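Extended Data, panel c. Modelled sequence:
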Amino acid sequence: MTEWQKTYPVLLQQDVIWGDMDAFGHVNNTVYFRYFEDVRIAYFDRAGVFDYKQKCNIGPILAASHCNFKLPLTYPDRLQIAARASIVSAKKINMHYIVYSEAFGAIAAEGEGPHVTRPGWPTWSRRRGSRAGPRSACS
C-alpha cells in the first residue's frame, strides 16, 4: 500500500472508457471532475451523508472544484480514484482527490473541492473511522 492510499479512506477502481477521450486522444479534462464526483459520492455514502439527507432532506453543497492535471490519461488504463476530507470548520469541509493511473504507475491528477452547508445542517465531525460526516440528528 502506498503512502497516499493510507491517507485516503475511500478508493474506487475504474477503467478509462474509450468515449471519455477527446479529439486530442486523451481523456477530456471534464471527465476528471466526474471521477471526483464518483469517489465523493462513495465517500458521502460511507460517511452517512445520504442517510442524513434522506432523513432530514438537507445535504452539503459543492462550492468549487479544482483539478491539477499531471498526466494525460488514455484508453486503455485502470484508475484508482481516492477521496479524503478535512474539516475546515463546523460548516465546511474540503474534499481531496487523487486519480492514479495503473498504466503510468503514477498520480495522473489531484483535486480539491470545498463543501459548505446551509442552515439546518449539523456540524461536521469525524465518524465511522476517519471519515467526516454529519454529527447530529435533524433540527
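The chain has one domain: 3-134. This feature is highlighted in the accompanying rendering.
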